[in-house]
Write a structure and sequence with these properties.
Number of strands: 0
Strand content: under 5%
Distance between the termini: 54 Å
Order of helices and strands: HHHHHHHHHHHH
């Protein structure tokens, strides 16, 4: 990549790994005291914010200042909103069943296993997924049409994710909805509008890193990994397995798009109209 500061970027990769690891290690220390490892979910967005801010500082004097600032603001806003939302959603709850099942299989010390298989693994994923954010801040190309498209895609994804989370939280806050399936607002068009929003966010950040063909090749691993995680990994597939036996979920699944928002399919006349 002509003009790309490879030596500075290589140093940034190490600093970014340190930033992600520091957030995860601090979270592990707090989780040990509280006895609740679900705190790592709150640290996910904060770790991206830490990597982004570290990269912004490291990239000073390199890359395009407008691109650097835009990517930093977008990623920090996304990461902090996500962390605050997850922290608020999990207040007063005990351990997440996912981590209970995982740690029940620990061959030795549960803490050592949790550190290795939860915190350090997620720290490594943050480092990998954040590649577009790191690359973009070193691309020595002014903002152009591709960057505008990326910013618009990011904004659409941020809106989907934020609105979807807000609608679901408001629905769950009503005791009358206890045990019912959320099928209103964006959730009537997609079973996972928040995950779809996350998908758009990372493809938008990827476009912001596409100053050249080589920078695109370096950054594309991130949205591909996130797309797989959201649809086949710890996102959509895992959540749907947990909800499969909930009353009304089969009917909701039959009429509602699994990921990409689409108009709901018409219910058969023989279907129970209750959600």
């Amino acid at each position: 990549m002509t003009g790309f500061p490879w030596a500075a970027f290589a140093a940034n990769l190490a600093v970014a790994a340190g930033a992600a690891g520091s957030v995860m290690l601090l979270t592990f220390a707090v989780a040990r005291v509280k006895g609740v490892h679900r705190l790592v979910d709150t640290a996910w967005g904060a770790a991206f914010a830490a990597v982004t801010l570290a990269t912004y500082g490291m990239s000073a004097g390199h890359g395009d200042d407008g691109r650097r600032l835009l990517v930093t603001l977008a990623t920090v806003l996304w990461g902090l909103r996500l962390s605050v939302h997850i922290a608020w959603r999990g207040r007063g709850h005990g351990e997440d069943p996912r981590y209970e099942r995982l740690l029940a299989r620990a061959p030795g010390s549960r803490d050592a296993y949790a550190l290795r298989m939860v915190y350090l693994l997620q720290g490594a994923l943050v480092w990998l997924v954040s590649l577009p954010v790191q690359v973009a801040q070193y691309v020595p190309v002014p903002l152009g049409a591709g960057a505008v498209a990326g910013a618009l895609l990011w904004a659409a994804g941020f809106a989907f994710e934020s609105i979807g989370d807000f609608q679901l939280a408001r629905f769950k806050a009503d005791p009358a909805h206890r045990g019912r399936v959320m099928d209103r607002g964006l959730w009537g068009w997609s079973r996972h509008p928040n995950y779809f929003g996350d998908f758009l966010v990372w493809w938008g950040l990827f476009l912001l890193a596409c100053g050249t063909g080589q920078s695109a090749a370096l950054a594309v691993v991130s949205p591909l990994v996130m797309s797989l995680l959201l649809t086949y990994g710890s996102g959509k597939r895992l959540l749907e397995n947990q909800l499969a036996d909930r009353p009304g979920y089969a009917a909701y699944r039959a009429r509602t798009s699994g990921f990409v928002p689409l108009p709901p399919r018409r219910r058969p006349h023989t279907e129970d109209p209750r959600p």
